[in-house]
Amino acid sequence: MKKTLLKTESLSKSFSSGGTLQHVLKNIDLELYEGDFTVIMGASGAGKSTLLYALSGMDTPTLGRITFGDQVISDLTPDELAVFRRRHCGFVFQQIYLIDGMSVMDNVLAAGLLADRNKKALAERAAKLFEAVDIPPQTRRKFPSQISGGEAQRAGIVRGLINSPEILYADEPTGALNSQTGLDVLNVLSDFNRRGQSVVMVTHDMRSARRGNRILYLKDGVILGECDLGKYVHGDAERHEKLSAFLAEMGW
């Protein structure tokens, strides 16, 4: 039986816009499991990113409960949530947000030092992670403006993993990349997932979604359906057909 990492109960999120209350997430009950590559799909405005931000503690729900292990993170203060995120969550975004005045390596180390990690141990872990994503030592010494978009996103994954998070959250991680560099990033995410890293990814891209073993389809703030694809295997034509049929059923 899979270990539950995170659980939501009646998770809801509302925003006020122009005097009107918009209900973006509506009473979502969900469990995330250790070792899964969970993909959240849905049309634009379905609430995908809002759900990811709520799950990760980047945003707080309007109503409902989020439990991580035995900790109710929906009850934490903003400062407590910041500590929680640094210790338990990693993040990869469409926009990479590396600090241009720092080397690629220092960008990664800074994320670890914020979590009060030992600098020597951090440097050793960073070196192993950079090697795993095929970023050589000379590139690690460069500034973000001196490297390619694909290298920057792979460095962003290293930064997201430097603190050994239980869950790596990725919000459209290939959205700003061309086809080949996007494929490289997906390969990196799949490789870390094979090693046991739990991943939660928001995407609207079929190629990216096929990397997940669990697909959640969000519509109008509710989880309309779920599809189990099993672990990713390169070249599995049936996987594509199964996902396509599921998305068609969902009205995607």
Structural overview:
By secondary structure, the protein is of the alpha/beta class. It is 38% helix and 27% strand. Strands 6-7-8-3-9-10 form a six-stranded mixed sheet, with helices on both faces. It has a four-stranded antiparallel sheet with strand order 2-1-4-5. Strand 4 and strand 5 form a beta hairpin. Helix 3 (104-114) crosses helix 4, helix 3 packs parallel to helix 6 (149-161) and helix 6 (149-161) runs parallel beside helix 7 (179-194). The mean pLDDT is 94.
Fold topology:
Layout (H helix, E strand, L loop, with lengths): L3 E14 L2 E14 L3 E5 L6 H8 L7 E6 L2 E2 L5 H11 E5 L10 H11 L4 H14 L4 H4 L8 H13 L5 E5 L7 H16 L3 E5 L3 H4 L4 E6 L2 E7 L8 H14 L2
Parallel strand pairs: 3-8, 3-9, 6-7, 7-8
Antiparallel strand pairs: 1-2, 1-4, 4-5, 9-10
Give a quick precis of the structure.
By secondary structure, the chain is an alpha/beta fold.
Characteristic key phrases:
single chain, 252 residues, alpha/beta, Rossmann fold, four-stranded antiparallel sheet
Tell me the CATH architecture: 3-Layer(aba) Sandwich
CATH topology: Rossmann fold
In the sheet with the most strands, the strands line up as 6-7-8-3-9-10
Order of helices and strands: EEEHEEHEHHHHEHEHEEH
The portion of residues forming beta strands comes to 25-35%
The helix tally amounts to 9
Overall residue-averaged pLDDT value: 94
Compute the gyration radius: what is it? Answer: 18 Å
